[in-house]
């Protein structure tokens, strides 16, 4: 039976890969994103896709967006919380309070509000699934990315607690923790780290792969595959779990 799937920040990158995976599985998918142009391109490529342009840093926009999601989907079987920004790459004593708040607001507060609004719709499913996109930064420390790492660790407690609260409603809650994902974003992050360390991009890239068993960055399609598995009947007894997908990364350095 086709599932009804809601994905935040689904217009590009990991979010788009996840949306494509569910669409190719013949599920009904609703995505939101701040980038209207990316959304329009997604819908052009997948005409059955539901899209909504929304700034997830704004609670009122989230509420309006959910009203539209209810009209389109009726209920939700799968919620993928993919929202997140990296924030500045900067030492803790130089991080401004405004930058800290910006990251925490989008990565944690918006995820909370989206989930709170989705819970009644997930309960209607009878077998709801919540997938929270954390990060390797939610498993290891991440120098010069304090706000980001803190927000991604917060999602671990969020996941564990929700799995306990919602289990009685047969709602499964898990977190995926990607490592460095292949694509433009990881290149920007690595360049920022190179700038801070006054090093070359090549040297920083080699160092990033040095402490993991698999010597390549994560393919975003593999993250989408994991989402499909967790949302499937094969994952029906998996909840409250923290699932790294990072090439067996041992430390960030």
UniProtKB/TrEMBL annotation:
PANTHER family assigned: 3-OXOACYL-(ACYL-CARRIER-PROTEIN) REDUCTASE, 3-OXOACYL-[ACYL-CARRIER-PROTEIN] REDUCTASE FABG
Domain of life: Bacteria
A Pfam family hit: adh_short_C2
Stretches assigned to coiled coil: none
The protein's name: 3-oxoacyl-[acyl-carrier-protein] reductase
Organism annotation: Acinetobacter calcoaceticus DSM 30006 = CIP 81.8
UniProt similarity note: Belongs to the short-chain dehydrogenases/reductases (SDR) family.
Entries under NCBIfam families matching the protein: PRK12826.1-2 (NF009466)
InterPro entries: NAD(P)-bd_dom_sf, Sc_DH/Rdtase_CS, SDR, SDR_fam
